[in-house]
Amino acid sequence: MGRGSGSGGRSGRAVDPADRAQLERAPVPLRRVTALFRPYRWQVATVVVLIVSSSAVALATPFLVRLVIDEAIPRQDVDLLVLAVAGMVAVTALTAVLGVVQTWLSTTVGQRVMHGLRTAVFAHLQRQSLGFFTRTRGGEVQSRLTNDIGGMQSVVTSTATSLAANATTVVGTVVAMVALSWRLSLLSLVVLPPAIALTRKVARMRRAVTAQRQRHLADLHGQVEEGLSVSGVLLGKTLGAGPAASRRFAATSEDLVGLEVRSQLAGRWRMATMSIVFAGIPALIYLFAGLPATSGGMTIGTLVAFTTLQGALFRPLMGLLDVGVTVTSSMALFSRVFEYLDLPVEIDDPATPVGLDPAAVRGEVRWEGVGFTYPDGARPALSGVDVTVPAGTTLALVGETGSGKSTMASLVARLADPTTGRVSIDGVDLRHLRLATLAQVVGVVSQETYLLHATVRENLRHARPGATDAEIEAAARRAQVHDVIAALPDGYDTVVGARGHRFSGGEKQRLAIARTLLRDPRVLVLDEATSALDTATERAVQAALDEARRGRTTITIAHRLSTVRHADRIVVLDAGRVVESGTHAELEARGGRYAELVAAGDDAQDLLAA
Question: Are residues 28 and 115 in the same domain?
Fold first, then answer.
């Protein structure tokens, strides 16, 4: 990097209030930041040495210029002239090579630190409970993983190196200027402060305009994302909101026109101010050098050398004046990333896990005195639940929306841990199992199907990376979706599209079922797994699931009571409590809550006639 690189464009900045608020909320000890670079301490030390060497070597150029003007040319000393000119070329070449090596080293260190942080944050977030992601906006998670960690690259390759280079350049330049002429050095100390103040003031004006422009650009991008995505276009067409969205976009774009003009004018004013400063200071130096009272017998070579040094002083000095802003911005980035790294892991592997062979699991599931309250819940979602599901049988959970069905099932997959009591499989508390082991034992098909933007084959193989093509096809046949896949242009190699938009809701559900069947879990949780299927398809998939359920424990959640009629046991939940339990015939004959749900259900006739 060149001396003072990157500082001129950032001069005059003010501390972003958001950065200050971030550090107040989550302060970052400096030792924690330096610890990230400890494995690369020798590379960092080498970068510092290269910066100091590059700045020191570059200071030789003005003295060589003075030698040429005052000695070589007046004396017609060709040897001295060639030597001085060769020295200038050598200085330029050496600083260029040092700069390349410095950039390579600092970029390598920065990228390695970023890689470590990026993978650590990703792995840590993977261990967070489902509740964290329901409370946190997806865009914020992505921003911290990409923008914030990406911004840290500048901490090493720009911020830190620029600060070191600027400091070295300023100190070395001031010493060289004093050595050339202490009188003109005093003049510079008087002229520089008002010139710097003027430049910073103009830069602050531009920053205010730029901030407004960025906010409007963010609004514009948000409108593009919302209005031109698949879901956004579908919503606009079905609601007839397209013209209104176009008018809103046009208004934001119109505001952006004015801000762009103001931003460009502010930038032009800033450049004009910088030009005046760069031209004005050397002019004053020439004036004072020409006055008998202040020249002190200065030679032409000394004057040229001094003005060269003076020109090299302004930008690094401006960079040093922005140290506080630069450090605050950099530390705010670390603070935001460390906030995620410091999040407690609510659902984690036990310190001493119980060894359990997934292939040997029978599949008995038991809730014992289970209660659960969400962190922001006003009342318990579950209370005093005692239910046992014998291995290989089917349990159906029935109840109105909000009764606790999905919460009860989610505890089996350990998407959350019970507040009280315990959930066990084959008598082993789930909290004593490794999460990877539990994932092999319990399979979940939820009502919200998520497909990767990849081929059908890759989506299915995501459940079991080692599965063969024959096993993938067999799972698809059992889920009644093979014929749909085979009819696609590229068969199993067809890309499903963003969020699986290529498929209907029922087809996506069947793909999700095939994916779970490929994993072959001993315990199967079906959370509204057939909610998106039409009656004919539902019956086909239900038949496939009946076949797949043999020898495994199945927990089914459904609002459509026809899907749970043949369950070995039906549990009726109300306000988080078990109010009834039994078979379909027993519960219907009892005339209680289940019978009321059957009577009120839209598909009651199907249920009774089946």
Answer: yes
